């Protein structure tokens, strides 16, 4: 029995314990809301950083997560996937990426819930000049973000939809600007966001989801595990460098209540100026090599309420 398989089985008890605790906390929060006659609007399963490989153990683990989510007695209304669905589309041949999507198509059949996704940095197919040897061209219709948009059924790189009295806005984090020091949404997308928020009814609450965190403690702590504190700058590779612009938009709108993200493979919850920022742990954990720093593989359950409040619980497996 190999190391990955041993640890997958060994984690079954941890999964059971964390699952029981998570649902106990969700139930306790719901009970408090019920006393005030505030109803739950939606239950969301938040999956992020799946990094699926066409290998037995990652496929078995992802299948288990989907089966667990789909067989809950109090089933989620929706799955939100905040990106990095495949291990890596970056700088890979078309054949290699096709192999990864084959694994995705195989495992996703275990899911029967609606899924809404956004784009992660590893979901973008780009090439180097060496791929000319494979006959792969940058003129391919699947190039860039086109392939992931098609496979995950995204209506655009950023988009919006309504469900359960909430408005959901999917944003595209994957605009890395070297001169600005990291990931940004870009002016065009932020103008679109402002327009969407201004046209949202006053009594409707908004959930934003993006791959890269907007506000989070996890990027700094991830960096601090790897560099002395005096060498740390703003962690623009793991957090949006246009955070102040986005924060201003959220504050002026007053409608954004929740922001989901992934990317860092850590878990945190930050309540800042009336917005709950939830960074979810990775389904793949340490890219299918067990625990990353202090964080085992995980997925989360998010309950949204009609008053704009929420409860977020993470299940480790």
TrEMBL record:
<keyword id="KW-0378">Hydrolase</keyword>
<dbReference type="GO" id="GO:0016787">
    <property type="term" value="F:hydrolase activity"/>
</dbReference>
<protein>
    <submittedName>
        <fullName>Metallophosphoesterase family protein</fullName>
        <ecNumber>3.1.-.-</ecNumber>
    </submittedName>
</protein>
<dbReference type="InterPro" id="IPR029052">
    <property type="entry name" value="Metallo-depent_PP-like"/>
</dbReference>
<dbReference type="InterPro" id="IPR006311">
    <property type="entry name" value="TAT_signal"/>
</dbReference>
<feature type="signal peptide">
    <location>
        <begin position="1"/>
        <end position="30"/>
    </location>
</feature>
<keyword id="KW-0732">Signal</keyword>
<dbReference type="InterPro" id="IPR004843">
    <property type="entry name" value="Calcineurin-like_PHP"/>
</dbReference>
<dbReference type="InterPro" id="IPR051918">
    <property type="entry name" value="STPP_CPPED1"/>
</dbReference>
<dbReference type="Pfam" id="PF00149">
    <property type="entry name" value="Metallophos"/>
</dbReference>
<feature type="domain" description="Calcineurin-like phosphoesterase">
    <location>
        <begin position="42"/>
        <end position="266"/>
    </location>
</feature>
